[in-house]
Design brief:
Helix content is 0%, strand content 44%. The protein is built from no helices and 20 strands. The strands form four sheets. Strands 6, 8, 9, 11, 16, 17, 18 and 20 form an eight-stranded antiparallel β-sheet that branches. The chain has a seven-stranded antiparallel β-sheet with strand order 7-10-19-12-13-14-15, with no helix packed on it. A hairpin with a 6-residue loop joins strand 2 and strand 3.
């Protein structure tokens, strides 16, 4: 970021208590003590050296934050997301703005074509990570409709390393939330390392037309990844953690259709995406 945080940089933008903010222009590091709506409290940390480089796929910062809330008026956002449309589309949707939803990107899988899909990623922006240290993400999303037998679809939200080429392509490295209407009506939490995956199906049903907060982060001991929905812990996954060199991943948001028989498009609105990395 090129500025210091303000009271508006609160939980509605995906921040949580303990979130870090790097002011690249001033060379300052801030941490959130409160994320109350409209009254966030950020404290500048002293004696911190910030080096804004990425070396050998590892972040050299004392702490790093990536944040996008799509207030730029374009689907590529502030961070320059790579858009892979695959028959679908990504569109900036101004009409979804409210007092707390301030900029939205829509990811859409159109009807009439199996594998119709759309993905946003920062993989080609030179932002790979590994989970050998504490890293996490938070995103605010809203599904416009659920999948059904005629119009099944899948979304993945979090960290990954592969842009889906079809309805069966999964991530080789990363950790993310998944909704696959052909497999479960509930949120699934997944970790991936070297093309092996661990899945935890939660007891929380996916709902449509409702804004929700999804977040996940590596625990302090780097032994598991904790997944939260609306700040409530839903799963702690200890298998297939992408912690080794070469098991890199980056922010990723994707939607894919399963069949060409459906007549209805499926889409998801994303209000913000925030990633924290502590070295």
């Amino acid at each position: 970021m090129a500025n210091a945080p303000t009271t508006a940089d609160d939980k509605t933008r995906g921040f949580y208590i303990g979130s870090f903010w790097v002011d690249n222009e001033a060379g300052e590091l801030w941490q959130a003590q409160s994320v109350a709506v409209g009254a966030a409290v950020w404290v500048k940390l002293a004696n911190t050296t910030i080096v804004n480089t990425i070396v050998n796929n590892q972040v050299a910062n004392t702490a790093m934050i990536l944040a996008d809330d799509w207030q730029t008026g374009v689907e590529t956002g502030l961070m320059g997301w790579q858009v892979s449309q695959g028959g679908g589309a990504a569109t900036w949707v101004d009409a979804q703005q409210t007092t707390t939803i301030r900029g939205v990107v829509e990811l859409r899988a159109n009807n009439g074509n199996v594998n119709n899909r759309c993905t946003l990623t920062l993989w080609n922006a030179g932002l790979p990570f590994i989970a050998s240290r504490q890293i996490g993400f938070t995103t605010w999303i809203n599904l416009q409709a659920l999948g059904d037998g005629t119009n099944p679809y899948r979304i993945r939200l979090g960290f990954g390393d592969i842009i889906p080429a079809n309805s069966t392509t999964d991530q080789d490295n990363g950790f993310y939330f998944e909704y696959d209407s052909s497999l479960s009506a509930n949120w699934r939490c997944k970790t991936a390392a070297a093309a092996a995956r661990t899945i935890s199906t939660t007891s929380t049903a996916v709902v449509a037309s409702t804004w929700m907060k999804l977040s996940a982060r590596v625990n302090a001991a780097v032994t598991a990844i904790d997944f939260y929905i609306n700040d409530v812990l839903k799963a702690s996954v200890a298998g297939t953690l992408p912690t080794a060199l070469g098991q890199d991943f980056a922010p990723l948001l994707s939607i894919t259709r399963h069949t060409s028989n459906g007549t209805l498009q499926r889409s998801i609105y994303v209000d913000s995406f925030v990633a924290n990395y502590l070295t």
